[in-house]
Amino acid sequence: MAASMSLNIYLAMLFSLLLSVQEITCHADYKAALTKSLLYFEAQRSGKLPLNQRVHWRGDSGLHDGSDAKIDLVGGYYDSGDNVKFGFPMAFTVTMLAWSAVDFNYQLKANMELQHTLEAIRWGTDYLLKAHPEPYVLYGEVGDGSSDHACWMRPEDMTTPRTTFRIDAQHPGSDLAAETSAALAAASVAFTGIDSRYANLLLTHSKQLFDFAMKYQGEYQNSISVAGQFYSSSGFQDELLWAAAWLHRATGNPTYLNYLNSMAGNGGTRSEFSWDDKYVGAQVLISKLVLEGKVGYTGTWAQCKSQAEQFICSCAQKGNSNVKRTPGGLLRFQPWNNLQYVSSAAFIASAYSKYLSAHNSTIQCQSGVLRANDLTTFVKSQVDYILGSNPKQMSYMVGVGTNYPKEVHHRGASIVSIKASPAPVECKEGFTKWFNRNEPNPNVLDGAIVGGPDENDGYTDSRSNFQQAEPATVTIAPMVGVLANLA
């Protein structure tokens, strides 16, 4: 009898130990994924690479960007698998990196990744400051998507046109100007207390850009038509709200609060949060003010909070119009780069979980109550799927685990490094020698999250499968905060 009890106690202890090991391993995966997500941004850098560059297969590129307009536009990020610098998604990328640093500052610091996050933000903001040389001028693109897509070249070898495109008083772009304003305002909050001079500089440009967006209104693709073929904006009211919300958070100025109060109800309940649709982000920032008691729970403020929470309820499958899921449990928003929308939704839930916890509050959904820990459980389900807990047992983040996409649709990663083979790879040669090879990329694009599986959890690891196999900065930026919160 005693021996039987001892065995039971031993087995219970062993089971408990295994659970602990499993939990530690899971946390280690989040931490490793966080580290790699920030490495990814170093691989996307354009310009003169710094001495502390950790992604060694990359080299300097785009060193004459802006020369056609006699302006220095060296730096910034290539947005996905190509060599174009698109200002609209780049600004959203910076905004989400900054929001990660602001809301998950403690977690990033605890995981020794705050400095890398600030470096990733600053690589973007330094460029955005250059792109805004005058109050009513903003450069919104360098390079041309069509000519770029006709070539498969390393960024270090580029011979494609590096044409610059801008908005100004005669050629407005409220969405582009306001998103850039939001990025700089959010970044100013991230740098407050760390580099006050830089934070103030960012804020000055942010205010000017918000004024630009308000004074000269229009959709930016009407002024930069080449951008519209790749990153067309569906409107600019969401960006104006988003920018005003960040400027209020950065300054506390009631002017921005008054603007939010007059306009914030127009978004309605959204079906996504993305590089094109910022309403949910603005609604969540307003909800934070409601929870903190800084605005009353009435009128526009109550409406915004309700709309933000309905979006979260739908993602967590407790709403009256739930987001579709794949058989394996992944949220399904769009056929193209679905994981961008998943990562953004996961960020919203992570941030809201923090706000609920701080104020001991809950969300009342159509099908029940959501507490802070319920949101964390939901976020974990989506992140775990991305990192390998899915029907294909594949990590959709490159470099995490052993089974991850090897043929990522990415020019730099798919061609031998210029450090290993400095001979230029010409435009069409890149297709014949590298793109069409049915072999793993020679360079591992650590931290990249590909477009993701289809509606049935299927994924084809092929460079030509750009709809599923191409990563983008807008996908990984929200994951920095999400992973920091889980690690």
Automatic annotation (TrEMBL):
GO biological process, one term: cellulose catabolic process
The entry's keywords: Carbohydrate metabolism, Cellulose degradation, Glycosidase, Hydrolase, Polysaccharide degradation, Signal
Keyword Cell division tagged: no
Coiled coil: none
Record field: catalytic activity: Endohydrolysis of (1->4)-beta-D-glucosidic linkages in cellulose, lichenin and cereal beta-D-glucans
One protein family per Pfam: Glyco_hydro_9
EC id: 3.2.1.4
Entry keyword annotation includes Signal: yes
Single annotated GO MF: cellulase activity
Span of the signal peptide: 1-28
Enzyme class: hydrolase
Active site: H409
The Glycoside hydrolase family domain, residue ranges: 30-483
Family stated for the protein in its record: Belongs to the glycosyl hydrolase 9 (cellulase E) family.
Protein name in UniProt: Endoglucanase
Organism field: Stephania cephalantha
